[in-house]
Amino acid sequence: MSNLDNTTGIVLTTGYRLSFVCSVLRSAPPCSKFFSVKHTADVQYSINPPRSEADHLSPIPLNDDTVLLFSMKKASEEENDNKLSVRYYGTDKKMLGTAVLHLTAVEISLDVDADRDGIVEKNNPNKGCWKWGPDGHGAIILVNCDSERRWRKLDHEQDFIDRESDLKDMTTMVLRTKGPAKLPEGYKLTMHISQGDAESIRVYTSADGAVGRKCDLCFSSFQPRHRYPLILQSACLSAEVLYRRGFAENKFYVEGIRFPDKDFDGLVTINLSLLEPIGPGIPETPIFTDKVVLRIAPWIMTPNTLTPKEVFVCSTTDNYTFLKEIRSFVAKSGHNLKICHEYMNRGDRWMQDEVEFGYIDSPHQRFPVVLDSPRDRGLVDFPYEKLLGPDFGYVTKKAQKEDVNSLDSFGNLEVSPPVTVNGKKYPLGRIIIGVAFPTAAQGRNMTQVIQDFLWAQKVQEPIALFSDWLCIGHVDEFMTFVPAPDKNGFRLLLASPDAGYKLFKSLSKQGHGNATLFDGRLIGVETETPRPVDDILNDEELQDHNNYVQSCIDWNRDVLKRELGLDEGDIIDLPILFKLVKEDEEVRALAYYPDVVNMLVLGKNLGIPKPFGPKVNGRCAIEAEVCSLLEPLGLSCTFIDNFASYHQLLGEVHCGSNVRREPFDFKWWNMEM
C-alpha cells in the first residue's frame, strides 16, 4: 500500500474555494503505471497536465509530472469529515495499492478595510497590495499620536490600551475562520511581522483572541494584563492567535507608531500563517500564509484657502494694542481666538514659528495633528501642554541643537492651495519651504530632519525657495496666498519693491512728494524721523538694496510659477520696500516698513500689518493701494498695528499668529501618484 494510506490532511483557503496540491507519483507503489481517484461528495479534483474527459472514466496513465489538484466545496463541520483515495495499477491494470487522504477543510482569511469604505470586508482580493487613486485599494493606519488620558503622554508611547476610545484611532483587522471545533492536532495559527515593520506598528487583540505561549523572540510568557493585550511589537515579531470553532471573527487593532520618513515609505505588511507539525524536535512548517498591506497616513498641512477653526496668539507685556486689535478682527471674522498667556509662552510671541497645524485622515478616523518645530524657545511647552489631547495629535522631529537656525521656524513652512502643473494634479497643494540659494557654498538651510519628514509625506510634494537673503529667512516675509472667486480659486501675493517704488513715484508725480513715512510713529522711546516720499526716491543706496531684493523675489517668482503652474494673472504684487543690514558678517534684508504681505488670512477677511505709509487726503497711500488690489476679489482688509510689538522685533502679524483650519474634503489616498 502507499505511504498515504489513512493519512490526514488539512485543506486551506482565503476564500470559498478550498484547494490542495500533491504529487501522485510520490505516493505510488513501485511499478505503478496507472491510477484512479475516488472522493466524497464535497471534494473536487483535477489533474495536471490536463486529461480528456474519457481518461477520467478508466485508469489514468501515471507520468513523472502527474499532479493531482483537489479542492473542497465548503469548510468542514468536523475533523476528517471528507476523504480522497487514489488507486494505483500496474502495466496490466491490476491494482497495486490505495492511498487514502482524510481531509479537514478550513476557511482562513485575514481582512482589513482594503476598499477604504470604513468596513472590513471579507477577503478582498486586493488586500495584499496598496494602490493610490480613486480606483485604488489598501488599508490605512493612523499614527496614534493623540492622548486619551488626563496626563500628557502620546498614546503610542505606551504599549497597552486602557481606554475604549483609543480603539477608534487604530485600524481594525479581522481574522475570519470557518471550520470544525478545533484544528487538527499540532496545527497552529500564527500572526507575524518583519523587524522593520515592527518599528512602525503594533498589533493588539481582545483578551480572548491570543493564546498564552512563549514569544519567539523575547521569550516571555504571554499573560494578558489588559482587555486588549499587545501581541506584536519590535520585541515580539510573531504570536500564536486563537482559532475559534465554527464561523468566527477575531478582531485585532493595528496602531501606527511613526510617520513616513526618509527611511520608511509608510507601507507595512501583516502576515497570518498556518503552521503544520512535522515531528518531535522539528520546527513547524508554514503551509499557508495570508497577508494584508497597509499604509500609514501622512501628515497633511492646510492652506490659507481652507476654513479657519481657531486662531492662536500670545499675550506679552508689550502687545496690548496688537492683542486688542487682533481680538476685534477675529471676532468680526466670526472665529474663535485662543490666547497663550505669559506663564506658558515665557515672553516668546512668535506663535507661527513654533508650530504648524495639520491633520491625519483615514476612512475610520481623522483628527488634527500639530507639528512642533525644533526651535525650542519660550513656546517650547505650548503644543505639548496646551494642544495635545483626545483626538488632537502631536509630532516633532528632533535635531541637533547646533544644526537649528532661524530657517527651522515655521514661518518658513507654508503650503499652497490645490494646483495642477503640466497636467499633474496636486489636490492638497504643495509645501513651500525656504533654503539657501542652490549654488551657495555657505548659507542657512532648514535642518535635514525636517526636510526629510516633509518630503516623505508624499501627498504635498515640497518646493524649495531661496529665502536666506532675508535676515530672518522665512518665506512668509515675501509671499502668501489669499482666496479668490475665479481662476484657480486663489491669488499668490508677493512682496514687490518695484511696486513700492512705482507707488512712491506716482505719489511724487501727483505732488505728494513731501508726504512722509512713519509720521509720528514711536520707535521704542524715540520717534522715528518722518521720511518724505521724495527723500526715499532720492536715496540711491536704498534703491540698490531694493534692486537686489527684487532680483531675489523674481527668482522665487519664476520658481513658483513653474512649480505651481501659475501665470502672471495669478500673482498680485504688493508695495513693500526693504533695507539691507549686516548680520554675522552677512548682508541680509529686512522690511523697511511693516510688511503687508505677512498677513493673517481668515476666509475673505485679511488682518494686514499697518504700514504707516505716507498719507494722502488723510489716508495711508500704501493701505489704499493694497485695498485697491485685494478688495476687487471680495476680500476685506483690516490693518492692525503691530509696529512696536512685532515689526521692530523683526516680525509681523502672520509671525505672531497661527490658525488651525478645517481639513480638505479631498481624501489623500485618492491622489494619482
What brief labels describe this structure?
673 residues; alpha+beta; Immunoglobulin-like; L-arginine/glycine Amidinotransferase, Chain A; 9-stranded mixed β-sheet; 5-stranded mixed β-sheet; 43 strands; hydrolase; EC 3.5.3.15; PAD_N_sf
Helix content: 10-25%
The tally of beta strands, per DSSP, is 43
Low-confidence stretches: 1-6, 13-19, 212-224
Please report which band the strand proportion falls in: under 5%, 5-15%, 15-25%, 25-35%, 35-45% or over 45%: 25-35%
CATH superfamily of the largest domain: L-arginine/glycine Amidinotransferase, Chain A
Structural class: alpha+beta
Rg computed from alpha carbons, rounded to a whole number of angstroms = 34 Å
CATH topology-level fold name of the largest domain: L-arginine/glycine Amidinotransferase, Chain A
Calculate the mean pLDDT score and round it: 90
Please describe the biggest sheet, giving its number of strands, its sense, and whether it closes into a barrel: 9 strands, mixed
Distance between the termini: 60 Å
Total domain units = 3
Highest-level CATH class of the largest domain: Alpha Beta
What overall form do the CA principal axes indicate?
Answer: elongated
CATH architecture of the largest domain: 5-stranded Propeller
Catalytic activity: L-arginyl-[protein] + H2O = L-citrullyl-[protein] + NH4(+)
Family: Belongs to the protein arginine deiminase family.
Domain Protein-arginine deiminase C-terminal: 287-670
Protein name: Protein-arginine deiminase
